[in-house]
Amino acid sequence: QQDSTTKMLNVSHRSIGGTIPTSIGLLTNLTALHLSHNEFRGTIPSEIGLLTDLEVLWLQTNRLEGTIPTELLAIETLAGLFLYDNILSGSIPSEIGLLVASLTNIDLRSNEFTGSIPTEVGLLTKLTELDIPANEMTGVLPSELGMLSKLTTLELNNNEFRGTMPSEIGLLTKLQVLWLQTNRLKGAIPTEVLAIPTMTELFLYDNILSGSIPTEIGSLMTKLTNIDLRSNEFTGSIPTEVGLLTKLTELDIPANEMTGVLPSELGMLSLLTKLTELDIPANEMTGVLPSELGMLSELTTLELSSNDFTGTFPSELGLLTDLQWLDIPANDISGSLPTEVGTMTSLEWFDMPSSSLTGMLPTEFALLTKLTELNIKFNRLSGTIPAIILRSCTRLKILELQGNRNLSGALPTELGLLSNLSSLELQRNQLTGFLPSELGTMGDLTLLHLSYNDIRGPLPSEIGNLSNLRVLDLQANDLTGMLFPQLFRDLRNLEIWNMPANEVVGQLPDQAFERMMSLTDFNMKFNRLSGTIPATIGKAIQLTSLQLQGNDNLSGSIPSEIGILVSLTTLQLERNDLSGILPDELGKLIQLELLHLDRNANLKGSIPSSVDLLIHYYPSENHPLIPSLHVDCNNIECKHCQDYLGNECS
Question: What is the mean pLDDT of residues 353-379?
């Protein structure tokens, strides 16, 4: 119970529900009302406007809805108004300008306010913080914002403001934080804004801003610690004056249209000693990576992907002993990786795919014991995969070296030491030898891509231990041997089995489809399988694609259980030795788009009426449901298909 003499009421963080009682207006001596972090619903009672001595109102983090009562804005003593994290809506009342004598803080973030910022906000000359992010505000930013001479924080991000940035913001000589990101602002950055000497954070990303970055950014904003200009339409080069920002910790300019070279002044002046993040991907920058980058001694993140940088990898980057994230994919960096990469001992992420790197993988990578991702795919590396790297970098979760063409040698048995590895992608190289049984110890592995190599021999049964494996891709190797039941014992999460164009022999075991309950794609085309298609195929109920074509000795009838696979879109059984009558159950496959049965000399009869119904009665965009139906018309009577040469049959 509270009486009328109570000056402070604090019931925050109490999980109180219901509505705020109108009787709150009887506590006429209240100076502070703290009802935040509860579950209050309904509207803000206008009776709060009777609290004529109220200085601070905390109603944030509830479920309040409706508009801001204008009575609230008549409290002449109100200094702090905190309404964030509710469901409040409507426009911000112009009456807010009545609080000219007292208001210092407004926080309305994360509501559903609409409309524009009232020009009367400019009357609040004592305001130090104005926060309205994450609403649905529209319109242009009023020039009257420039009248808030004591403002230190202006956060208007994540709205739908349009138009240009008013140059009057440059009059806010005490402003420290300017967040205007994720709006629809356009035009250039006013040079007046870059003359605010107190600014520490400038966030303008996710807008439509354009033009060049003014050179004034370096000479006037000497206290800047964070600049984020990503996802705009800025052009031109990075001004060398950026090198004067001695307190800068993060420089982010990705996804713009920046050109020119990376200025050596970023490191040469030895002034940016506090820079921890340099983030300029997805631009059109050219030239070589300056060796002076190695002087940014505090750098933890270097992100330069998707530009047109050329030249070699500077050995001076080895001086960046605090660097954790190195991301320079999709450029044209050439030459060998220097041995100095081994001195970047804090590195966790090394990402340089799609460049022109040559030479061998430096064994010095073994010194990077904190490494969790090593991605150098689609370069021109040669030589073997050094076993010493695998013995040392046991924290690796992602190893991607695919598409290097000249990477050769056998798969090291030390791969089995990478117990944390989830993705192993070594396809499209010249790897040889056998699949090591040690692969079966990689319990976290989800992706295993080894296609288009020269790997030979049988599949080790230990692969059946990989209970987390989702994709097994061994296409186009020289694998032999049989698919033994042990190979499928624990592949319960496998979705894609892709092993075409090998020399695997023998019968498909029943266990293959009994245990792979998550299977969506099974591809064993162009091997040397024999025997029959097991009836247990019907247990792989998630299957969408079944490709067994080109196994000359695969015989027997098509099991009727295939009709259980109602999600099947692709069924390719051509080029085998199948026989018997086509099962009517094929007509249950109403998702089927491709059915190829041609070149099975002993497959007889006619297209089942159920399949004929699919073609006639399930059209999609004026095409049959089965746009690709191939059978041998000499053996099978049909009306709606093509033979394997593409000739229509009738």
Answer: 97
The residue written with tokens 């926060």 in the block is 131
Q: What is the pTM of this model?
A: 0.86
Among candidate residues 136, 145, 99, 148, the one with its CA nearest the CA of residue 118: 145
Are 596 and 606 contacting, i.e. CB atoms less than 8 angstroms apart? Answer: no
Asked if residue 329 lies in contact with residue 352, where contact means CB atoms within 8 angstroms, the answer is yes
Contact 159, 139 (CB under 8 A): no
Residues 6+ apart with CB under 8 A from 49: 25, 69, 71, 72, 74, 75
**Among 268-272, 295-299, 467-471, which stretch is predicted with the lowest mean pLDDT?**
268-272
d(CA 92, CA 96): 8
Per-residue pLDDT tens over the stretch 292-325: 999 999 999 999 999 999 999 999 999 999 999 9
**How many Cβ atoms are within 10 Å of 70's Cβ, its own excluded?**
14
Q: Which of 622, 522, 613, 502 is nearest to 568 (CA)?
A: 522
Q: Which amino acid is at 643?
A: D
Nearest to 154 by CA among 163, 165, 145: 145
The alpha-helical segments, DSSP class H, found in 233-357 are: 265-268
The C-alpha atoms of residue 240 and residue 269 are separated, in whole angstroms, by 10
Q: Is 181 exposed, middle or buried (0-12, 13-18, 19+ CB in 10 A)?
A: buried
Q: Considering only CA atoms, which of 242, 151, 141 is closest in space to residue 186?
A: 141
HEC assignment per residue over 180-212:
CCCCCCEECCCCCHHHCCCCCEEECCCCEEEEC
Please, what sign has the CA dihedral across residues 268, 271, 273, 276? negative
For residue 135, CA distances in Å to 114, 160, 354 come to 7, 8, 40
Residue 359: both structure tokens together? 């030479």
- Contact between 529 and 507 under an 8 Å Cβ cutoff? The reply is yes
Q: Which amino acid is at 31?
A: T
